[in-house]
Design a protein that fits this description.
This protein is mostly helical. 82% of the residues lie in helices and 0% in strands. The chain has 9 helices and no strands. The protein is globular.
Length: 215
């Protein structure tokens, strides 16, 4: 398979960055992979196809107090998935690390990760995690949301690098795409809710006009 110009540029530009971070995770696997690998596999499973984040968004939308946050999360994950899986992955067509380098292939085998298909850039798992967690941060704007969301995103990014399923630059791109999707989703949902609120208030105002004339 011929490498696209964009994929080649990414490989060259971020070569030192990606190799250094993946090497650090390989060293971590060498120290305690027997305990760490199952943990990171579980974290990675949470982000598979964004299904868990979709489910969480639907649960939040079922309750009035959390409906706004759930709606923002749902729209954000949808936008992130469209941008990543429909547009960017096929456009950039960057092979995964273990498909591009004998060294990364050895590290991938050492980590014991399951085979994965599809292109590498950007990370779909990280896009979904970033979209969902930044959506929660925007919806609640408190330290609990920021702390919890940050931990989830850090854990997801670390898992994808540890398993050598993505380059660290893929993970960084996924974070940016997901965060942008969350901001757009928050603006869209806020606009829709504001529009609905104005529509509900307008009939009440019109109904009060005849009463004032009678007086």
């Amino acid at each position: 398979m011929e490498t696209t110009l964009m994929a080649a540029w990414l490989n060259d530009t971020f070569a030192a960055f990606d190799t250094t971070i993946l090497g650090a995770f390989h060293a971590l696997a060498a120290c305690g992979g027997f305990a760490i690998t199952p943990l990171f596999e579980a974290v990675s499973f949470v982000g598979e196809k964004g299904a868990c984040f979709f489910a969480l968004a639907i649960v939040l939308m079922a309750f009035k107090r959390t409906r706004r946050a759930g709606a923002v999360m749902f729209v954000a994950v949808c936008l992130g998935a469209l941008a990543t899986n429909i547009v960017l992955k096929d456009l950039v067509a960057r092979p995964r690390p273990f498909e591009s380098s004998a060294l990364f292939l050895d590290w991938w085998r050492f980590a014991g990760a399951a085979p994965e298909d599809g292109f590498s850039f950007p990370s779909g798992h990280m896009t979904a995690a970033s979209a969902a967690m930044v959506a929660l941060m925007l919806a609640y704007r408190n330290w609990k949301a920021v702390l919890g969301g940050s931990l989830v995103m850090l854990g997801m990014g670390a898992a994808r690098c540890y398993l050598v399923a993505h380059y660290p630059s893929d993970v960084l791109a996924g974070f940016l795409v997901g965060a942008l999707a969350a901001v757009v989703a928050w603006l869209l949902v806020s606009r829709v809710l504001r529009w609905r609120g104005e529509r509900r208030v307008a009939p009440r105002r019109r109904a009060r006009v005849p009463e004032r004339r009678r007086r």
